[in-house]
Amino acid sequence: MDATAAGEPRYRVREMTEPDIDAVAAVRVSAWRHAYAGLMPQAYLDGLSVAAYAEQRRAAFADPAGAVTNLVAEGPDGTVLGWAAYGPATSTDPEGTAPDEGELYTLYARPDVIGTGVGRTLLTEVLRRAPYPAVRLWVLEGNARARRFYERAGFRPDGGVLVEDADGSPVRELRYRRASVGVTVAVTVAG
Hints:
Blueprint: E1 12-15, H1 21-35, H2 42-46, H3 50-62, E2 69-74, E3 80-88, E4 101-109, H4 118-129, E5 134-140, H5 144-152, E6 156-166, E7 169-179
Parallel strand pairs: 4-5
Antiparallel strand pairs: 1-2, 2-3, 3-4, 5-7, 6-7
Helix pairs in contact: 1-3
């Protein structure tokens, strides 16, 4: 949890519930449009739909076999400001998965709260809760701000590269990795 000058928690992190799905979908779509402008085709970003993504989240959320943990960060008034999801490392990794590794699938904050500690608070909580000795994630190669954020938190690129398709355009992602157990996260946010 990030704290105010008076020591009061600024953000509360909790497990996501079904009523959070619409707010999480709005966070995801607005964060993608903000973070990936110029890195993905604009038509692709403009075509993202909060309603369609909410339906996808509902289906995933309802899956009793799912191994994903979803966390939300909320402000003092209960407004969802950010979302993170983690679980076992996925099989989409071109080099396969390490059976004991976890993966941070998603970490997004509303664009209007970037730089306020929401992302840091979520990441700290993911690393505290993740029952894996190491956690990996994928970050767009051209997303310098996100790469700096993860590097400040102790993640390092490990050489893994994945090329995804975004509306017919290749998008390169780099794999980052760090230990998750017993490591304190200290992130300095700079513009």
